[in-house]
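Handoff note, outgoing to incoming analyst
You'll be picking up this chain. Sequence as last confirmed:
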Amino acid sequence: MNIIDRIKRSVANRDAGVFLRGEFERFGSPAQVGRALAQLTIEGGLVRLGVGIYAKAKPSVLTGKPIPARPLEVLAPEVLKKLGIPVMPSRLTRDYNAGRSTQLPSGIVLNTGKRRIARKLSFNGKAVQYEHA
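Most recent structure output, in case you need it:
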């Protein structure tokens, strides 16, 4: 069984929606894993959210092109949790949920506490923004 098939099987058997490149290191050398992940993104089994971050994909109902199986709003906190970064709701989301505001938060904004994040997470022009406490 080649690396592509092993990675496909590994992704299918997991409940997680996102995967870090390092999770596949046991299947081969970094170059082989990189080529296999690139091939899987071309085939539509995975989509790339950032450097070394991939998500399970499904075909879009409208265009047929691969899109993440879950929305980016759900996947972004999962990625940060895997990276060991605590995530809290943004200030605007907290205000809306507490009833102090009627304005719905636009976009994806995550509060990372005092931690400064330089990692960019995005898909199809929709990017995650970070807010500091």
